[in-house]
Structure formats: C-alpha cells, structure tokens
C-alpha cells in the first residue's frame, strides 16, 4: 500500500499542555480518513502540523514523502487545503478566484470543471461577497481542488451548516473520492465520519482512543445487541430471559442470539394473549461508541 | 516575473471593484487637490530662498505626493492587514505561490496606482488650475524620485502591518502615523519660513517632506538635493528590514 500520510509519536505541547500527546496514524492512497473528536481534542493542531502551518514538538511526520515542517514547494504543489476559516478576496468572481489559485500550481484542473465539481456552476460569475456561507465553503473546496492535488485536507468542512447543506457537502466529498483523491477529514460529527470515511480515528485530549472502519470502530460490531421491552400493566411475571429492570416497569436484555430471544419473548406474549408496550432492538451506534471513548464528548478548547 | 504580472492583474481587478479602496486611495487625493487649490490656490508661496511659485502649483506636488503615499503606504498597510485578518494570507501560504511573488505584486500594483495618481494630479493641475507648466523639467530625476518614494512608502506600509495587532486597529494606527506627518511636512498647508524648529526637524527626519521637495525640485527644474533621495532610500531599507522580521501571515491574538 502506498502510504500518503505517516505519523509516528507526534507530540505538540504549548507550555505544560500537550495538545497532541504522542499519536500514530497513517493514511493510504485513495482513502478517506476521518479524525473524529470533540472540540479541543487536537484535531486542528494535528491537521495544521500535516499542512505545514505549525511545527511539532516531537515525533515524525511524512506527507507524500515530505516533512511538512520544511514547507517545501514540491509538497505544496501536491496538496489542497481547506482550513476552518480562511477568506478570499470578496471582490473577485468565483471563476476569477479559482483561476487565480489554479495558476499557482504546475498542472491545474480546468476552472469550470472544478467549479462544477463543488456545485457552484450557476454562481461562476458571481462575486464572492454575494455567496452564502455554504457556497463560500464550497468555493474553499474548489480552491483546494484547483491545483489538482493528490491529497486534500478538509478541516471541519461542514461545521455551521444546516442539515441539507451538510448532505450536499457530503455528496461533494464523495465526488472527490471518485476523482481518486486521498482525503484527510476532521469532524466532530459521528454521522459525517460514518458516511464519508473508510477509516476513522477517534481523538480525545490529544490521544487516539480508537481507530478502524466506522462499522467496527472500537469493537462496535462485537458489542452485544440490547433488547428493551415493557410488558403491559397487569401482565403475569415474565420468565427469566436474562433481563434486568431498567426502571418504569421496563427491562433491558443483552442478547447474543437476537432471533431466538425475540422468538421466545413474542411466543410467551402470544401465549398469554398480550402485547408488549415497548419492544426495541438496539444496536450500539457509533455515537454510543464515540461518547464512551471521548468521555461524553467533554473537551476543552 | 510572469507570475508577478498575473498576480498584479488580479490585485488590480479587486482594487477597482472595492469602493472603499478605490475611493480612499484614488478619489481622496484628487478631492483634496480641488479643495485646497480652490481655497488657497491664487497666492504665491516661497519654496526655496528667493523662489516663489503659485500655490496651485505647490498643491499639485503636495497632492501628488499625498496620492503616492496613500496608494503605497496606506493602501498596502490596510489591504494587507485585512487580507491577514480574513485568512487570505494564511490560505496563500498553503499554496505553492512564493511569498515574494505575492508581496512584489502588491507593491508593484500600489506603485502603478501611485504613478497614475501623480500623472492625473499633474495634468489636472495644469489644465484646470493653470498650475505652472514646467520648464526645464528633468524627467529622469522626477521618475527616479517617484520610484524611490513609492518603494519607500510601500516598504513602510508592509513594516507597519507587523506592529498592528489586528485589522480593527489598522485604519486608526495607519492614519495616526501618516496624517500628522503630512501636516508637519507642509503637504496640506505651506510651512512658511517661520515654522517652529521642531516642525522643521520632523520634515528633515521623516520621509514625507523629502518626497515632496524632490518631486517639486525635479519637476520645476529647481536645485535638486540628492539628500532627499538618500533619506527616502534609508527609510526604504530600514522598512524592508523591519518588515522582513515582523511580517505575519496570521492575525495576532
């Protein structure tokens, strides 16, 4: 596998505070990798070290074979960066802006094509100052794509978006994958990581606490399914299927063989001529895993 | 070089579309020329011992210098501060565009705007206010003065961005530095012969008066003092040194 990003023992300290406390990660070519974590967990610090904006305190970092701290021209030509908040000249048009940035690279993509990829085709001759916030964010991505980079950094690309704008942005990221780009994404939305990423690493307080494909992150696929149920008032005592009381007359029941357990339960109910008030089968969600790993999403900025 | 020219083109487009920059940099000096010349233009003013010129001619050079300074110093300082605040500089830093290309383009564009302003001021003054048509003009010296002056004030504009913490503080600090100097250097009101000694010293130490004097002397064929060019040059070099040490790509906290 072609390693696009390799991070070993990365540390960044500000005084006594370790913003990034010894992390190891790698990203392979063509992958969408998401660094997921609450605010202040070290996502942006890590990303800006990879982009060459900040210097690391310790550890080693390779991006496309280069050390980003050297800020080499040869590396900058091959990466595209979408920072959390960066401006462009408000008085240029979308087309002029993308054209200007594309011109900084040796082999830019055609301007109109880049603008189409991010869905700004109809706004191509609009001045930047007249774009909405979501459209400006798309323009950020267009600018990052203008030089036809191999690797794209997207730092919280959808923060502040409404749900439909987020859906659109996700489609856009998916289209980057179709172009064969490698994508480094940071986000604090679980659903975003789940939808977009091939692989996710969860960062909390500067350390990686879990890493893997979203479906099996932190053994999520191994975790037991839980059945929650509540018999109707006045029902006879339920047999022991292994449940524990969960308050309000409800029970919670960890199940290894969900099909059989449900069969036993519904059989018992039908035999007694009653129906459960509540009957839920709960798969552990990525959100459960995430909240567990990051200590309830607590973080300090 | 092609990259610089390309960048100048985009800088130029954005400059003229921005009403604030086009007005304050471009229209202001011309407006001042009209106001001062209308109010005070019919007198004579002594510019060197035994040398008097019409006040309208005096203002052509004062406002020409003012135009050059607002295009180079004020415009560069404020536009770079805003670009820094908005994250434009940070974004550029992540692209392969070399910093020197971006900064050269900014300075070159400002100088071109400044030259245009001086040209308009001179033509406008001659046509409308009947300011003296120069005789014995030494065009070479005049252009040299404009070049060194523009470079000097552009460098000072860049240097100032290093000491201004954020864009909100930009216009007040940038103007607080230049406005008193413009007055104390006789740009708006002729200093006359009985100005206090400290005012004369301000004129000698800082670059504004040297720029005006050298422009006027070369244009009107009065005795040209190379010391004016030397002072502008020293300020330019000092400002480049300060700018290269203090220039920041991201806003201060």
Task: Note down, in words, how this protein is organized.
The complex is a heterodimer of chains A (about 300) and B (about 250). Chain A has about 300 residues and is of the alpha/beta class. Chain A has two domains: about 5-220, 3-Layer(aba) Sandwich (Rossmann fold); about 225-285, no CATH class. Helix content of chain A is about 30%, strand content about 30%. Chain A is built from nine helices and 13 strands. In chain A, the strands form three sheets. A six-stranded mixed sheet of chain A has the order 5-6-7-3-8-9, with helices on both faces. Chain A has a four-stranded antiparallel sheet with strand order 11-12-10-13. In chain A, a hairpin with a 2-residue loop joins strand 1 (about 5-15) and strand 2. The longest helix of chain A is centred in the middle third of the chain and has 16 residues, at about 165-180. The model of chain A is unreliable at about 295-300 (pLDDT under 50). Chain B has helices at about 1-15, 20-40, 55-85, 90-95, 100-130, 140-165, 170-185, 195-205, 205-220, 225-245, and strands spanning about 45-50, 50-55. The mean pLDDT of chain B is about 85. In chain B, helix 1 crosses helix 5, helix 2 packs parallel to helix 5 (about 100-130) and helix 3 packs across helix 9. Chain B has one domain. Chain B is globular, with a radius of gyration of 18 Å. At the A-B interface, helix 3 of A face helix 1 and helix 4 of B.
């Amino acid at each position: 596998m072609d390693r696009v990003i390799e991070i070993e023992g990365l540390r960044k300290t500000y005084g006594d505070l370790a913003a990034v406390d010894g992390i190891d990660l790698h990203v392979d070519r063509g992958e969408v990798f998401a660094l997921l974590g609450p605010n202040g967990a070290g996502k942006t610090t890590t990303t800006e070290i990879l982009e060459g904006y900040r210097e690391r305190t310790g550890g080693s970092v390779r991006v496309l074979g280069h050390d980003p701290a050297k800020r080499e021209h040869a590396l900058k030509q091959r990466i595209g960066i979408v920072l959390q908040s960066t401006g462009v000249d408000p008085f240029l048009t979308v087309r002029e802006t993308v054209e200007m940035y594309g011109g900084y690279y040796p082999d830019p993509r055609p301007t109109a094509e880049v603008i189409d990829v991010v869905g700004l085709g109809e706004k191509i001759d609009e001045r930047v100052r007249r774009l909405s916030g979501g459209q400006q964010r798309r323009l950020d991505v267009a600018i990052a794509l203008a030089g036809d980079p191999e690797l794209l950094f997207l730092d919280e690309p959808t923060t502040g978006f409404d749900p439909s704008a987020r859906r659109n942005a996700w489609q856009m990221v998916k289209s980057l994958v179709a172009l064969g780009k490698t994508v480094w994404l940071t986000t604090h939305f679980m659903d975003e990581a789940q939808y977009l990423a091939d692989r996710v690493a969860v960062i909390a307080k500067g350390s990686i606490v879990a890493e893997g494909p979203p479906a099996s992150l932190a053994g999520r696929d191994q975790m037991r399914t839980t059945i929650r149920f509540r018999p109707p008032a006045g029902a006879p005592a339920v047999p022991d299927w292994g449940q524990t009381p969960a308050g309000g007359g409800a029970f919670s029941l960890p199940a290894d063989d969900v099909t059989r357990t449900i069969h036993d339960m519904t059989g018992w109910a039908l035999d007694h001529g009653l129906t459960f008030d509540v009957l839920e089968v709960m798969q552990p969600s990525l959100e459960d895993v995430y909240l567990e790993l990051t200590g309830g999403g607590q973080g300090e900025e | 070089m092609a990259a610089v020219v390309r960048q100048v083109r985009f800088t130029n487009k954005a400059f003229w579309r921005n009403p604030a920059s086009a007005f304050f940099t471009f229209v202001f000096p011309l407006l001042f020329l009209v106001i001062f010349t209308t109010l005070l233009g019919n007198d004579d003013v002594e510019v060197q011992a035994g040398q008097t010129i019409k006040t309208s001619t005096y203002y052509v050079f004062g406002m020409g210098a003012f135009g050059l300074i607002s295009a180079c110093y004020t415009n560069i300082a404020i536009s770079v501060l805003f670009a820094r605040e908005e994250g434009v500089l940070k974004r550029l830093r992540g692209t392969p565009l070399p910093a020197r290309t971006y900064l050269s383009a900014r300075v070159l564009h400002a100088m071109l705007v400044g030259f245009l302003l001086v040209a308009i001021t001179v033509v406008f003054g001659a046509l409308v206010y009947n300011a003296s048509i120069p005789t014995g003009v030494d065009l070479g010296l005049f252009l040299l003065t404009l070049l060194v002056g523009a470079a000097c004030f552009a460098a000072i504009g860049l240097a100032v961005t290093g000491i201004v913490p954020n864009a909100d503080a930009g216009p007040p600090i940038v103007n607080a530095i230049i406005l008193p100097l413009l007055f104390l250097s006789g740009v708006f009101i002729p200093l006359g012969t009985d100005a206090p000694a400290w005012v004369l010293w301000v004129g000698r130490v800082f670059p504004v008066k040297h720029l005006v004097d050298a422009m006027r002397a070369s244009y009107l064929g009065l005795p040209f003092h190379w010391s004016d060019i030397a002072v502008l040059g020293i300020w330019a070099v000092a400002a480049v040194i300060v700018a290269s040490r203090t220039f920041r790509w991201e806003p201060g906290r």
